[in-house]
Amino acid sequence: MSGFTRVKKTAAAVAATAAAAATALIAAPAATAAPQPIVGGTTTTASAYPFMMQITDASQDQFCGGTLVSPTKVVTAAHCMVGETTSSVRVVGGRTYLNGTDGTVARVSRIWIHPGYRSVTRGDDVAVLTLSSSMPYGTASYVSPSDTSVYAAGATARVVGWGTTSSGGSSSNQLRTATVPTVSDTSCGSSYGTRYVRSDMVCAGYASGGVDTCQGDSGGPLLIGGRLAGITSWGDGCAAAGSPGVYTRLTTFSAEVTAQVSG
Ligand code: ARG
């Protein structure tokens, strides 16, 4: 998606503890969750999430996340790759900070965008990048087509990214992570109506909001049980009550991803 404002991180927001997040799941505080880092979460490192990749422009300015699933293959969102070419993008691994110069920069030799992709609210928001050189980092495994039970409502999902820490706010210079519960199809359908395409999407977030992915997190992982199960795709605002984050339902695209990863 174009027009990500890369803004330096401002005041350190109040860190949400895992305990606070767990409490929120049981008894949601009425109105105001304090602004919490992704939105709601904690800082982490590339070492903790070695498969977490920055998708950047040629100047190494990050605009999306991606997940390393083999030394030369990265899963990301289709909407991140619209308008991009193999010469316009880079993949950066092993770099915790947006302003870092460490890690490994790879060029991209091929961009596969799901052929059905039209817009995030119509589904098919998945892309696979082939790198010109191997990343020396651990890879993530991803769900199989039959693993649909991972999305059972209330399952703990982990999100990771450098996105903004509030709706309309600044990107995080340091990598962040948070956990959010998956949301039932019925509930997400109530939130988003026909924009929620059950076959292609899964929602995650607290009923009260407060913890979510946000702009710049797109393309990054939704991990369930340590495996890649979703891709950060869209939402109405970020972390708002009644508007959970929407992720690509990877089981639906697992076979197509595997075809790209093996091919
Ligand atoms: N579309 C955004 C991106 O490109 C991700 C938005 C996720 N929004 C949300 N409320 N979870 O970075």
Summary?
The protein is an alpha+beta fold.
Polypeptide structure, described:
The protein has about 260 residues and is α+β, with helices and mostly antiparallel strands. It folds into 2 domains: about 10-45 and about 140-250, Trypsin-like serine proteases (Thrombin, subunit H), CATH 2.40.10; about 50-140 and about 255-260, Trypsin-like serine proteases (Thrombin, subunit H). It is about 15% helix and about 30% strand. It has 4 helices and 13 strands. The strands form 2 sheets. Strands 8-9-10-13-12-11 form a 6-stranded antiparallel barrel. A 6-stranded antiparallel barrel has the order 2-3-4-7-6-5. Strand 11 (about 220-225) and strand 12 (about 225-235) form a beta hairpin. The protein is globular, with a radius of gyration of 17 Å. Arginine binds near residues 213, 218 and 232. Arginine binds near residues 232, 234 and 238.
What characteristics describe this protein?
4 helices; 2 domains; disordered N terminus; Thrombin, subunit H; alpha+beta; 263 residues; 6-stranded antiparallel β-barrel; 6-stranded antiparallel beta barrel
Corresponding CATH architecture of the largest domain: Beta Barrel
Percent helix: 10-25%
Q: How many domains?
A: 2
* Count of individual beta strands: 13
Order of strands, widest sheet: 8-9-10-13-12-11
Using only CA atoms, what is the Rg?
17 Å
Mean pLDDT: 88
- The share of residues in extended strands comes to 25-35%
The helix/strand order is HEEEEHEEEEEHEEEEH
- Indicate the CATH topology of the largest domain: Thrombin, subunit H
Number of helices: 4
Task: Tell the overall outline.
Answer: globular
Q: Please outline the major beta sheet.
A: 6 strands, antiparallel, barrel
N/C terminus separation? 26 Å
CATH C-level label of the largest domain: Mainly Beta
Uncertain segments of ≥5 residues (pLDDT<50)?
A: 1-37
CATH superfamily of the largest domain: Trypsin-like serine proteases
Bound molecules: arginine
Q: Indicate the structural class.
A: alpha+beta
Protein name: Serine protease
GO molecular function: serine-type endopeptidase activity
Domain Peptidase S1: 38-262
Pfam family, one: Trypsin
